[in-house]
Amino acid sequence: MPPRETVRNFLQELLAEYGETAGFSDDTSLVISGMLDSLAILRIVVFLEQEFGLDLSDQGFDQNDFDSVASIMQMIDRVGQAGTE
Amino acid sequence: MSRPASFKIIPPIDTCPAIVDFAQTIAGKMALLVVFSFGLSLSTDSWLHTSAILLAMTLLPQYRGMLLVAATFGTFALGGWSNFPVWPGGGQGLPGGVLFKPLLVAAVLGAFALYYHAVRQWKDDWLGRRPVRNLLGGYCALIVLAAQLPPAGPAAVIVWSFAIVFGKYLWFFNYALLDRNAKDTAPLALQTGHFLPFWGGYNTPFPKGAAYLRKIEAKTPAQLAVSQLKGIKLLYWALLLMLLQRVLRQILYGQPGDSFLGIDLSLAIPSLSEVLHGRPGDPYPWYTNWLALVANFFYKLVAFSVWGHGIVAVCRMAGYNALRNTCNPLRSATIAEFWNRYYYYFKELLVDNFFYPAFLRYWKKRPRLRLFFATMSAAGFGNVLYHYLRDIHEIIQRGPWDALVSFHVYMFYGMVLGAAIGLSQLFEKKQRQDMPWFKRNIVNPFCVMLFYCVLSVFDDPDRNLTIVDNFAFLLRLF
Fold it and tell me: At what angle are helices B408-426 and B383-390 packed, to 10 degrees?
């Protein structure tokens, strides 16, 4: 499954746990809007570590990176590139 | 069958299309400003200049960033730079006279600008990899250095003054450092507008840092209208709470002869400080101790909500649609949820500066320990460090070590709070909607309030008490 779909499916399940069943686009704000909280971000972090092998410890942490499917995909690209340099 | 609309004391004007459309017209903008300014005049003496700033930011949203810089520094200057009580005793005879405070602010901002650019320049070196930790470490070292100088000498006055002002900016600087690598981050000069911004929230950045502000900033006339309508709603909600606070003060703490709005009923409950100190030879009965504790908890909750709502309301009116600082804390079903709902921006400060760095670095193979350790780093260590550095006048008077010793009750408080939130997160149910209604809405909130109420025994700012006094009071509750 393409990475974007994998991320999207995970977020959909996470949102359902928070009682958010409405659809969302790649640019929909999930964290800043209040749909997801800090604990949800942690679960996204753990998911990205396990699913994509990302190590975020050397990156400046910014909650905005986890705010939407689009921002998460940008971060995956950025961290992935940094890891291969 | 359609659901009846839920009743709101403040009508949801921000969701009414006709009002949102009207708020985008010149007449609508003026109407909103008048309504907001009137509310502001009921709550603060500085309403006039705040309204003038909001007028400029409403009419010239394309210059919002620059106007924010002018507003923030203009507010400092209008207040005689009074937000920087630089030296205990009024700062009589400070070097530089009236220019001392502005020069000090310029020196602090200049020093940070050098550090910020060094961090960005050498991002792969030790300096650039952990800039927040290095800044906090450097600031602590500055305090230790200042304590070695001959007290009240000119060098001590200058270094301590620098440390006091730097401390006011400290957490704003940290947010700027966290945002240093973002592609769309603003130049540092422009970021100074939201370092100690004109809407208030000193020490704890409201609402967080540059990254968050970029995200919540109104980018279209419709977004600005919604943000301002939400600001008006929040301000008037704060005014209602202010009224409630005043009534509570009369009923809980009023003295014989006091009256408010015709209410002369008063329970004359002693303050928490009074019952903590006790009356030698004539101790308060256990039920008075409980009354004082519970009254203090609820009174502080209302007062704190009023304070935070006022700040966020002005921020929203300026075009930044920030989340509320306090949001229905009495509905919290867990200890962690209460902390999030009670003082959101302080919790966010600790999460961003302590929790995430710890979570991302340590105990990755042990998920539960990882979560607990990161929570302790934030709610325990970060919380204690924040308050220790915030009370810098205690450090100046007592010295760093004695100030730390006199802070031991709050350190205990921070550790218990951190452990409780950590455990709360570990055992939190994922599917809260599956929880029975009575447990979710009655039993759990009551237990959460009871926990925070009892824990507040150790959250007293009086440093003349020792932990033995606090535990003695705890025993007197039973």
Answer: 150
CATH code: domain of residue A26: 1.10.1200.10
Kindly report the nearest CA distance between residue B21 and chain A, in angstroms: 22
SS3 of residue B30 by DSSP: helix
Residues of A with CB under 8 A from a CB of B: 17, 19, 29, 32, 34, 37-39, 42, 45-46, 49, 56-64, 67
pLDDT for res B264: 81
Which residues constitute the domain of residue B167?
87-195
Whole domain around residue A29: which residue ranges? 3-84
Q: Residue B320: beta bridge partners?
A: B217
Give the pLDDT confidence score for residue B300 in this predicted structure: 94
Are the Cβ atoms of B352 and A45 closer than 8 angstroms? no
Task: Give residue B1's pLDDT band: very low, low, confident or very high (50, 70, 90).
Answer: very low
pLDDT value of position B270: 92
pLDDT digits (tens, 9 = 90+) for A37-65: 777 888 888 888 888 888 877 666 777 78
Residue B180: Cβ-neighbour burial (10 angstroms; 0-12, 13-18, 19+): middle
B107 shares its domain with B173? yes
Same domain, B132 and B236: no
The answer to whether residue B336 sits within a structural domain is: yes
- pLDDT at residue B2 tops 50: no
Q: Do B357 and A61 touch (CB under 8 A)?
A: yes
Q: Structurally, how many domains does chain A consist of?
A: 1
Residue A50 C-alpha, separation from nearest chain B C-alpha, in angstroms: 10
User: What is the nearest CA distance from A47 to chain B, expressed in angstroms?
Assistant: 12
The pLDDT, as a whole number, for residue A60 is 65
In a domain, B213, yes or no: no
Q: Is B217 on the interface with A (CB under 8 A)?
A: no
Q: In this structure, is residue B74 part of a structural domain?
A: no
For residues B448 and B334, the answer to whether their CB atoms sit within 8 Å is yes
Whether residues B229 and B189 fall in one domain: no
Q: Are residues B257 and B365 in the same domain?
A: yes
Residue showing tokens 């020196």: B107
Q: Give A45's contacts in chain B (Cβ within 8 Å).
A: 359-360
In chain A, residues with a C-beta closer than 8 Å to the C-beta of B179 are 60, 62
Q: What is the ipTM of this complex?
A: 0.76
Which residues partner with B343 through β-bridges?
none
pLDDT digits (tens, 9 = 90+) for B263-291: 888 888 999 988 988 777 778 899 999 99
- Return the percentage of chain A with pLDDT > 90, whole number: 12
Structural domain tally of chain B?
Answer: 2
**How far is residue B273's CA from residue A79's CA, in Å, rounded to a whole number?**
52
B69 occurs within a structural domain: no
SS3 per-residue string spanning A30-44? CCCCCCCCHHHHHHH
